[in-house]
Structure formats: structure tokens, C-alpha cells
Design goal:
With 189 residues, the chain is of the alpha+beta class. 30% of the residues lie in helices and 32% in strands. The protein contains 4 helices and 7 strands; from the N terminus they run E-H-H-E-E-E-H-E-H-E-E. Strand 3 and strand 4 form a beta hairpin.
């Protein structure tokens, strides 16, 4: 897709745009209220301030604007969390979500995390299908009122096999891929 790139460096304005994108899209598509934005903003700011080499964000730019993201965040020395997966509607349906999740999981594996988990909402069928296709399994559900809605949160967990390669389901980055930023942080295996 022309004008699309993915980077790992955070630039001025990125945090605000990622939070805004989450707030606007989740309000328009799922009816979540303004309290969803602080849920995204607080942990995202903490993530950026830590600068942990075992954590990484993938920021999708399309037509010179932030149009999506995903991140691996350290939850514990042996557990990472997949967070902030979102793509703007014009760039959906092109396999980019699968590619981002694959890159994130490969990074987590290279960093030595034996487990990655995520929280999502039970009605996000497309996202849940992507997570399950990547190897995540439903581990917990919690119905409650959040962000102005009665929702069911779902926790999904992926445990890497001790002998599994760092690439997940054939989604390793090609060195010639012009869309992906160079890998930094945990060394490739």
C-alpha cells in the first residue's frame, strides 16, 4: 500500500495520536465513552517513559499520519503483554494486523518471554480470530461495566514452546521488506 510505513521510534505527537485514534474509533465502532482514552493514555505514557529494550511499539504511518499501532510491554520478567493493536479503517483488510502481531510475537520470543497475554473485548470477532490464528487461547472472561458499556473482557494467552522458532506462523520479516523498520532491542536468535 503506497504511503504506508512502520517504525519503532516514538516521535512528538505519536502518543496523542495513538490515544486519539483509539478514542475516536472505539467510540464510533463500539460506543465506548471518553473514559476509554485515559485507559490507553496512562499505560502508553508509562511505556514510553520506561524505554525498556525488552519492550517495543510498532507505529503504522499512512499518508504521513499515525494510522495504527501494536506493542509488546513487559508485564513481568517472564510475561509480556500485547497491547494497543489498532488500525484505521482505510488500512484494514490487507493482512497488516496479522503482520504486526507476527512481528510483535517474534520480538517477544527473541526477548525470552515464554508467555504473552492480551486483554480484548468479547465482541471484537475479527481481532479474536487474529489472536487465535496466532496461537493465543482464551484463558479468562470478566463481564463488567466499562467505558460506558456492559462488556465482557477476555484474557488470551500464548505460551511459546521451548523449541519454537522466533518467527510465528511464517510471519518472519523479510530483510528486503521496505515497510518494516530495522530490528533493534533484543537480538535475533
Amino acid at each position: 500500500m503506497e504511503g504506508l510505513s512502520i517504525r519503532h521510534t516514538v516521535k512528538p505527537g505519536d502518543l496523542g495520536r495513538i490515544v486519539q485514534l483509539h478514542g475516536l474509533l472505539y467510540a464510533a465502532e463500539y460506543g465506548l465513552d471518553h473514559t476509554f482514552e485515559p485507559y490507553v493514555a496512562g499505560p502508553l505514557a508509562d511505556f514510553v517513559l520506561r524505554g525498556d529494550p525488552r519492550e517495543r511499539i510498532w507505529i503504522v504511518e499512512w499518508q504521513k499520519a499515525v494510522a495504527g499501532s501494536v506493542a509488546i510491554v513487559a508485564a513481568a520478567p517472564t510475561r509480556a503483554q500485547l497491547r494497543w493493536l489498532l488500525l484505521a479503517p482505510p488500512i484494514r483488510g490487507r493482512g497488516l494486523g496479522r503482520r504486526l502481531v507476527g512481528e510483535a510475537l517474534a520480538f517477544a520470543r527473541r526477548c525470552g518471554y515464554p508467555e504473552v497475554f492480551l486483554w480484548t473485548l468479547g465482541h471484537l470477532a475479527v481481532a479474536i480470530h487474529l489472536y487465535q490464528a496466532s496461537g493465543f487461547r482464551l484463558a479468562e472472561t470478566k463481564p463488567h461495566r466499562l467505558w460506558g458499556q456492559d462488556l465482557v473482557e477476555e484474557k488470551h494467552v500464548l505460551r511459546f514452546a521451548a523449541d519454537s522458532p522466533p518467527g510465528i506462523r511464517g510471519l518472519r520479516k523479510s530483510p528486503q521488506d521496505p515497510m518494516m523498520a530495522p530490528t533493534r532491542g533484543c537480538s535475533p536468535s
